[in-house]
Design a protein that fits this description.
The protein is of the alpha/beta class. The protein folds into three domains: about 140 residues; about 110 residues, no CATH class; about 170 residues, 3-Layer(aba) Sandwich (Rossmann fold), CATH 3.40.50.410. The strands form two sheets. The protein has a six-stranded mixed beta sheet. Strands 7-8 form a two-stranded antiparallel ribbon. α14 packs antiparallel against α15. The protein is globular and about 75 Å long.
Length: about 475
Amino acid sequence: MIDALLASPHRRLVEFGGRHVEARESDLDFYGRLGAWYHTRGVIRDQRLLFTAHMGTSRYPAHREAAHVLLQGLRTYEVARLLRYLKEHVRSVPRPVKRAVEHWLRRRERNEAWFDEVALRDRRNLKTLYASLHIRPSPRAGQILFDRRCPADSRLAVVKRIARIRSPREKARLIVQQRIFASTALGAVGALEPPVLAAVIDVMTPQQLANSLAALKRRGAFNHPELRRLIEAKLEEGRSDGRFQDARVLRAMDAVGDDAVGRQLSSIATERLRARGRIRKSTAMLVDKSGSMEVALTVGCHLASLCSTVMAAPLWMYAFDSVGRRIETPEDESLAGWQQAFGTLRAGGVTSIGAPLVNMARDGVEPEQIVIITDGEENTAPRFQHMYSELCEAVGRSVPVIVVFVAERDTGATSLERDLRRQGADYTAYRFAGDLYSLPNVIPFLSQPSRVDVCAQVLDTPLPTYADLERLPPGFDPATCQLI
């Protein structure tokens, strides 16, 4: 199950749902607590959705109760996707899930500004929730969604006014005054004059801004001194914003193409990742650069950047094909620095996963854990199992191994997995499915003393109950009109 959590389903929910069913039926108690734990610590939304769906359809009443609470934190499109998944996978929407969705809708109906914001962002999916489950909307909700008559005092009416106004400054004033969501504002304003761009940046959250940096750069915002200052100030707010996602910051760093903004994002990502916890075990990371392993070099570069950010112990980097070679830690341990360190490496040659352990023995490197990024198919001596045995004998203990597999496999274990199993090695395997957003999931398992401690942390997580509905986070900030 932990293996499955690293991968991003990329909306292939039915394929990944089978793993959730298997895990749930194997251990009801652990699965429920893992779902609650993942809702607070996990970074992949589709996995949170799958936990909610399979807890909501569980035969165990405590799972259904917990799913009712967990569903309240999903966004509109996620609830709609959950319903589509249940109809496709379970062939029905059970009554407990329908009650949870109705509770979700009624919470938003009770707050007119909240409901307006949800309708502005995703009218189509919001209508689907009412119609597909035959839930009667409140009079105001029915007027907005099904009669297409916006109350004069609603924020939806303001958006229609913005679309009719010609003055860029007046458009900008209304966007800021009414805190109109950025993508909604962009759809209403037409031409993007500097005052309108400034207003859109002002109403964005730091996360929305990070997601939009490349688009803003294309529109010339970085070349306008005042707009650039607004962008930098908004990003600084992300240091303390709980909604700012570390993985998306890393992707923004890779896409923005601006050195100054890249350094700012790197600083923010470093600070936020360190707040998650530090890796206190010395770590050797081995990156496969044999034939067709370009993806391993990319993943290795990003994971090196992540790990070096939170390391409180030595980190040694090696690349290998038929031989191993040391990758020196750059002075600048940001993603850009590691990309430069990896810059001369090209994938090619045969595969000896044991080769870098030869280098480690020569360098006197004795790590407390090993991370291997590879497809797992070893075809040349020295083989990992032999060199690993010598390493464990030299240090006088078993060294945990974390393998990040970067090639999709439908069935069967790799040669590396078979060797590790035969040796009885303490190893964990992850399947990387191409989404760099998932890589921060690796960090908690490197920073924990052992997998046993990770499981203990999960088992210490209580299942939510109906009593927690009274203590739900607000979900909406009336001051900024932002969904939380």
